[in-house]
Structures are given as structure tokens and as C-alpha cells.
Design a protein that fits this description.
The chain is α+β, with helices and mostly antiparallel strands and 396 residues long. It folds into three domains: 91 residues, conserved putative lor/sdh protein from methanococcus maripaludis s2 fold (Beta Barrel); 133 residues, no CATH class; 80 residues, Efflux pump adaptor protein, beta barrel domain (Elongation Factor Tu (Ef-tu), domain 3). It is built from four helices and 23 strands. The strands form five sheets. Strands 1, 3, 18, 19, 20, 21 and 22 form a seven-stranded antiparallel β-sheet that branches. Strand 15 and strand 16 form a beta hairpin. The protein is rod-shaped and about 135 Å long. The two termini are 98 Å apart. 19% of the residues are buried. The N terminus is likely disordered.
Length: 396
């Protein structure tokens, strides 16, 4: 009875289960349909409102430029210019050390007066500074003592001669007295020379030591002030006097350019402060050592100073080659400057043009420009490069 009841219950539940499955399938199918519809609607909306795909601009081929009317750009043939190669380097004005004189103090003491300053022009014999020195007092004391000793030995020698002449004094005693007098004369002369070396007059002694300029020139270094203590012949010296009528230019020349610099040849010197003045100097030395960091050698140029050059000034030195070279020339308008580089435009086949980099040289008369490298004499270039540049960019 129980088994029959259970089977009856299971048979009643089966239609309910099947009904549930059917309803779930209907819901799922309808949901999927709606999702597909929504996806199609979204795609249509996106395709209707989305911006067009970006177009990537291709890079210009400057070796194959095309303009609408190439005949509107006149051409000109590069000319020819013979010139010697040049090398421009920077340098600095320095004193000629062979014309520098250091002025020491010959006495130890304290500076009590300064009569010249850094940068002053001084003449030979002009007083520079004064030193109150114990050396002066000691030198005068030695002098006075030498005078007294010489006077005493002179009296003793005179007495010995009288006694020797009277037969009351032996010859050996006379010789001793003569030797003492001779020694004291030497000592006296030495003390007098010491006072003269210190610039003091034995008849008018003073504790002040005066220092005079040994040569004429410009004071290019000063190491003392008032009340500064100085020692005789000690470094640094109080003053340095330089003759600036003749100076040195010290230049740094790269290792790769040393073959363009030769001893005893001349170089053009242009001052940054006076660019219109050109001076000439002789190459007197190429130092045998190289700077290991920047690979340069020091080159020394000797120059006569017309009064414009000051120590520490920067200059441009131009070294000239030995043989002339053949360079091209073009109108200045044929060169266009882009990003610190120089270019010209040359005609190619089928009305096209190409851009070529050049290195310009000197500016020549009649608005012509020297071309050191990039093109050769006889090659055709666009006369107005800037106009061609603007036109080709607008036609991109």
C-alpha cells in the first residue's frame, strides 16, 4: 500500500518538474534574444556616431620632393672659389712669462705704506711699498759696530807702527795689528753694502725699508695689504710686474686638427671685445703633452699688443692651411637654415628636387656664400631655398 502511494506521488511531481524546465528554457531563450538585439543596436549606434579612423601622415622624403610648378623656382649653377683651409679655435690672453718680474721684499717686517695698486702702470725706480723692518735696525747696528771696531784697530795699528819703528815692538806684533785692521775694513765694507742693498743711507739710517719697481710695466698681481707681514725673499711675492706690450695667446687644439698647425707660421687673432680688429701672431710653441680628458694640445701664439688686449680675454685664433682648396659658391638665398644645420635644394629627375646638407664658409661679395662641403662647383641649386621650403611644406 505504501509503495503504491509513493509511486502515485512521484507521478504527480513529474508534470510539475517538466513544466518548470520548459518555463526556464523560454526565459533563457528570450533573454538571449534580447541580448543579441541589444548588441546589434549598440554596434549600429557605435558605427553611426564613431569618428573616422585616423590617417597616419607619412614622412616627407626630402630626396624626392614634388611641387606643383617647378618652373617657378629658378636654378643657379654653383660657382668656384679658391681658398686655403682654415681652422678656428678659441684661446685666452696670458702674460709673456719671460717679461714678468716678481718684486720681493728684501727685508722682513710689516707693510706700513703701499704706493701702487693692482693694475697700475709703474715706471722703473718708482716706489711700490714701505716696510718697517728690524732688519734695517740690525743692519745699522752692525754698521756702527764695524765702524767702532775699525777705528780701534786703526789706532792699534798706528801705535804698533810707532813702536816697531822705535825698535820696541816685534814685527810679528805689527803684522797682527795690520791683519786685525784689514779684517775690520772688510767687515765695515760688508755692513755698508748691506745697508745699500736695503736702500738705506749709512749717514741717515731709518727702520723703514722702501721697495722700488725694478722694471717698467703693469702690476698684474698683488699679494699684500696694509699691516701685512712679509718675509725677505718669501713666496708669494708682494707684487708682480708684467710687460703687456707683448703677450701670449694660449689655445686648445684638438688632436685631429694638429696637422693644420705648424711652428713659426702666423695666425689671425680676433678679439671677442673688438671683432672688427684682426691681429697677427706667430706660433712659437706646440706643447708636447696632450690633455688626456679632452684630447687637446696647448698651442702658444706670440702677439704684439696694440693696447687692446687684456689678460684673461677670450680670442678666436684662425690657422691657415698651406695649399689652396677648390670650394663652391652659391647665392646666400640658396641656403636655408634648419635646426642649426644648412641645406640647399637640388633638381632631380622628372621635375623633382632633393635636399642636401652643406657646410658654409666665408661670406663673399655680391651676397655670395662659400660652401666648404656638400656640393661641388657647377651643380645646380634652387636660388631661393626659403621660398621653395615654404611651398613644399604647404603642398604636403
Amino acid at each position: 500500500m505504501t509503495s503504491v502511494a509513493m509511486r502515485t506521488t512521484q507521478m504527480n511531481r513529474l508534470p510539475i518538474f517538466l513544466t518548470t524546465i520548459c518555463l526556464a528554457s523560454v526565459v533563457l531563450i528570450s533573454g538571449c534574444g534580447r541580448s543579441v538585439v541589444r548588441a546589434q543596436e549598440s554596434a549600429e549606434a557605435a558605427s553611426a556616431g564613431a569618428p573616422p579612423p585616423q590617417q597616419v601622415e607619412t614622412e616627407i622624403d626630402y630626396n624626392n620632393l614634388k611641387v606643383a610648378h617647378p618652373e617657378q623656382f629658378p636654378l643657379t649653377a654653383a660657382g668656384e672659389h679658391m681658398a686655403t683651409p682654415e681652422l678656428n679655435v678659441t684661446g685666452q690672453v696670458q702674460p709673456d712669462v719671460s717679461k714678468q718680474v716678481q718684486v720681493p721684499s728684501l727685508a722682513t717686517g710689516r707693510i706700513v705704506e703701499i704706493d701702487a695698486r693692482l693694475g697700475d702702470e709703474v715706471k722703473k725706480g718708482q716706489i711700490l711699498f714701505k716696510v718697517r723692518s728690524m732688519d734695517m735696525a740690525g743692519a745699522y747696528s752692525d754698521y756702527r759696530q764695524a765702524v767702532k771696531n775699525e777705528e780701534l784697530t786703526k789706532i792699534q795699528l798706528d801705535r804698533a807702527k810707532l813702536l816697531f819703528d822705535a825698535g820696541a815692538w816685534p814685527k810679528s806684533a805689527l803684522e797682527i795689528a795690520q791683519n786685525a785692521e784689514d779684517d775690520n775694513i772688510v767687515v765695515l765694507d760688508t755692513t755698508i753694502e748691506h745697508l745699500k742693498l736695503l736702500g738705506s743711507d749709512p749717514k741717515n739710517p731709518t727702520p723703514i725699508f722702501e721697495v722700488y719697481a725694478p722694471v717698467s710695466g703693469t702690476i698684474t698681481d698683488q699679494e699684500i695689504q696694509l699691516e701685512t707681514a712679509v718675509q725677505s725673499f718669501n713666496l708669494p711675492t708682494p707684487f708682480t710686474i708684467s710687460d703687456l706690450s707683448h703677450v701670449w695667446i694660449i689655445c686648445d687644439v684638438y688632436e685631429n686638427d694638429l696637422d693644420k698647425v705648424h711652428m713659426n707660421e702666423f695666425a689671425d687673432i680676433r678679439l671677442n671685445a673688438y671683432p672688427d680688429r684682426i691681429l697677427r701672431g706667430r706660433i712659437s710653441n706646440i706643447l708636447p703633452t696632450m690633455d688626456p680628458n679632452i684630447r687637446t694640445a696647448k698651442v702658444r701664439i706670440e702677439v704684439e699688443n696694440p693696447g687692446l688686449m687684456r689678460l684673461g680675454m677670450f680670442v678666436t685664433a684662425t690657422f691657415h692651411g698651406e695649399a689652396a682648396e677648390r670650394h663652391a659658391t652659391v647665392p646666400s638665398s640658396a641656403i636655408v637654415h634648419l635646426h642649426d644645420r644648412e641645406w640647399v635644394y637640388l633638381p632631380a629627375e622628372n621635375g623633382r628636387f632633393q635636399r642636401r646638407e652643406v657646410v658654409s664658409g666665408d661670406t663673399l661679395p655680391n651676397n655670395m656664400q662659400e660652401i666648404i662641403s656638400g656640393i661641388k662647383p657647377g651643380e645646380q641649386v634652387v636660388t631661393n631655398a626659403l621660398l621653395f621650403q615654404d611651398t613644399s611644406e604647404n603642398n604636403r
